[in-house]
Structures are given as structure tokens and as C-alpha cells.
Design a protein that fits this description.
This protein has one helix spanning 28-36, and strands at residues 14-15, 18-19, 39-46, 53-60, 67-76, 80-88, 95-96, 100-101, 112-116, 127-137, 141-153, 158-166, 172-180. By secondary structure, it is mainly β. The strands form three sheets. A six-stranded antiparallel beta sheet has the order 7-9-4-12-6-10, with no helix packed on it. It has a five-stranded antiparallel beta sheet with strand order 8-3-13-5-11. The longest helix has 9 residues, at 28-36. It is elongated.
């Protein structure tokens, strides 16, 4: 019999006196996108980023699901030190933008608040919490924060990407990959 965590204890079937089984071998984001249509990308742009400004803000507004961040890609046209932080507070300003569902056939919208600087509309009124990751980007380079689905945001939890310092005021851009479960 099969115990499939639902308590059904269904009778197992096979062929040639063997039990045929299958398992999930790809990462969780793949199955989440394919089966539930709840995997998203968030492309942000922060022109002329200044020290201690936030490039993006992402808050889980779902009442039932965790928001799981897989990775954050970062680009800069000049040297920049960036930190990903937990943040709290009632965010003010910033330009609202909509995450893109990675399952083209899904009409699901992300239960999230997403803001970017947008070139002069600085995200403000948030309080920095613990640092999650940091990276130094070389001039005209790409870096990645590989979080491997370890960053989980519960209801009303939020993160923000902050430029700590830059050589000048670099143009910072990138992408965030996340899903709900």
C-alpha cells in the first residue's frame, strides 16, 4: 500500500512483479511554475543609485503562502557594494511594478508589493533589519546572490536591496526570481 501523506493508503500497482514509482527531480520552482503557476520574475532598474538608497523592495502580501526567493541578479555600470536586507516599516515612495509570471499560460498575479527606485523616486521609511547577503559588483559586471530557495518570507515580511556605496552613482539593475508555496 502507498502512504501518500493524505492517509489514503491506496493499493500499489506495478508490472512484471515490480513496483513502478516516480519522484520529483527538478527544483521546487520548476514544479511550482508548471503545476501552480506561482513562479515570478521581478526586473528592477535603479539609475544613478546613490549611497544608502534601495534599488528594490519586495513584500509578501499573501495570507496563506510563503514567498520563496531563489536568486537575485545584479548588474552595475560601475563598482557598487550591495546588501540584501530584511526590512520593516511602512514603505513610502518608490515606483510600483508588477512581477512577471514565468508560466506564460497562467493568469495568476503575485501576492506581493514590489517597488523600485525608478530614477529619483527613492524608496523610504523602511527600517533595516538583518543582512541576508552582500556582493561587490565590478564595473560593467554581473553578480548573483544564489539563495537556492532558502530565503522564505511569511505574511507581511519584506526584503530590500540597498546600495551601501558606489564609486560614482552607478546605474544598478537586475532580476529577482521567486515563487509561492
Amino acid at each position: 500500500y502507498i502512504d501518500d501523506v493524505t492517509g489514503n493508503f491506496q493499493e500499489a500497482h506495478g508490472s512484471d512483479s515490480r513496483l513502478n514509482v516516480s519522484s520529483r527531480a527538478d527544483n521546487r520552482a520548476y514544479y511550482n511554475s508548471r503545476d501552480r503557476g506561482q513562479c515570478y520574475t521581478l526586473v528592477y532598474d535603479h539609475p544613478s543609485a546613490a549611497d544608502n538608497q534601495y534599488s528594490f523592495y519586495l513584500k509578501n502580501t499573501s495570507t496563506t503562502k510563503a514567498l520563496v526567493v531563489s536568486s537575485v541578479g545584479l548588474n552595475s555600470d560601475d563598482v557598487a557594494i550591495m546588501e540584501l536586507l530584511y526590512v520593516t516599516g511602512s514603505v513610502v515612495n518608490g515606483v510600483s511594478f508588477t512581477p512577471t509570471n514565468l508560466n506564460k499560460s497562467s493568469s495568476n498575479d503575485a501576492d506581493a508589493t514590489a517597488l523600485e527606485d525608478g530614477g529619483g523616486t527613492a524608496i523610504s521609511s523602511v527600517t533595516d533589519g538583518a543582512e541576508i547577503d552582500s556582493v561587490t559588483i565590478s564595473a560593467k559586471a554581473h553578480e548573483e546572490m544564489r539563495l537556492s530557495d532558502r530565503l522564505r518570507l511569511g505574511q507581511n515580511d519584506a526584503v530590500a536591496l540597498k546600495m551601501i556605496t558606489g564609486t560614482t552613482t552607478p546605474d544598478v539593475s537586475g532580476v529577482v526570481f521567486f515563487y509561492f508555496e
